[in-house]
Amino acid sequence: MTTSRAPRVAVLIPCFNEAVAIGNVVRAFRAQLPDARIYVYDNNSTDNTAENARLAGALVRFEGMKGKGQVVRRMFADVDADVCVLVDGDMTYDATAAPAMIQRLLDDGLDMVVASRVSEDQAAYRLGHEFGNRALTHLASLIFGAGAFTDMLSGYRVFSRRFVKSFPAHAQGFETEVELAVHAMELRMPVAEMPSQYFPRPEGSHSKLNTYRDGWRILKTIGRLFKNGRPFIFFSCLCIMCFAVAIGLSIPLLNTYVATGLVPRFPTAILSSAIGLLGGIFLVCGLVLDTVTLGRREAKYASYLRCPPVNGWDD
User: Fold this and answer.
1) Which of 30, 43, 131, 297 could form a disulfide with 16 if both were Cys (CB 3.0 to 4.6 A apart)?
2) 194, 157 contact by CB (below 8 A)
């Protein structure tokens, strides 16, 4: 006998001081996804965010550790649904895009659909932010060998259950979007992007994003993920740098030795040898850690496979 059921959908909204916008966000997603459960996670707000979300019909929960990454980790651990919609609570994302994004996930058997932001209003998506986003996206694609994303830092995504329950969240702040993208790249998950309107914040609402501080944190996160996810390439680069410096220091010594048979600058010779040895250590570290990383990746993939695919409703 064949049985089927509709997938359970949850809308996850991390919030910090979004009292002005959160009620409208909850109502907009309730109108588009009437059967979904809408969760608002309040991250130590000092305004009426939690009360306004509850009045709009959301299930309100709290996360005491500050930072969007902390909230995402808690939401992914707490909520059990077949499909999860992650969206910011600032009313900048288009709720009407959610049904199509979910349908794309189900129809194509995907694990993540990202809303690629489209806006002609510079107040909504400033050119500096757009340039930084695209630069970081291209850098991550270059490092991790995938070009599936054009808007890696979008805060509006749809996930399968197997993505959510296999995601090893480590980020604390806005760099969590980078981790989400790299997790999909590392396990070579089926993903897609769909264009979606991006709007200015409502009057009285203020962005929590600091361009330079959060941009630096995102860049550091890419570097950390590069070291952890591609250790052989990372440490090989350090090895090559050390060997280049060591060779540069040793060439004048070698020329003097060939001409006179003497090595008059012993400190330089010792420094060159030490830097060359350090390069060799980096190479060995890369080889060892590459094997360890392969085991970690296989463990994550096994965790991913333990969950059934989101389109596998028929028995």
Assistant:
1) 43
2) no
